[in-house]
Amino acid sequence: MSYIYETMYILRPDLGEELTDQAISKYQNILREQGAELLETQHRGKRRLAYEIKKQREGVYVQMNYSGPGGAIAVLERAMRLSEEVVRYLTVKQEVTAEAAPAEEAEA
């Protein structure tokens, strides 16, 4: 059975455009190295947080959708946890239904 994962993370707003792009690339490369296939990455831009986190009132939101082994998530989340640039992160697992799987294979 195949799974699709979605990781949403918030970067510090004071990083600047270049460092933000480097951080996004770093996390994409971690997933690729672990055997995951990136389906989509959305840079959602700077938004105001609902409450202050680590003395930050705003954050840069990034969403990555990918499929791959479960072990890739542990490596990705460890890198995010140890990083000073990530304020928060959340990974959600979505099961691919039998009806959706043939449609995806036909596209490939």
TrEMBL record:
Keywords: Ribonucleoprotein, Ribosomal protein, RNA-binding, rRNA-binding
Keyword RNA-binding carried by entry: yes
Protein name, UniProt field: Small ribosomal subunit protein bS6
GN (gene name): rpsF
One GO location term (cellular component): ribosome
Family matches, as CDD domains: bS6_chloro_cyano
Family, similarity comment: Belongs to the bacterial ribosomal protein bS6 family.
Keyword presence, RNA-binding: yes
Organism of origin: Trichocoleus desertorum GB2-A4
One Pfam family in the UniProt entry: Ribosomal_S6
Function field: Binds together with bS18 to 16S ribosomal RNA.
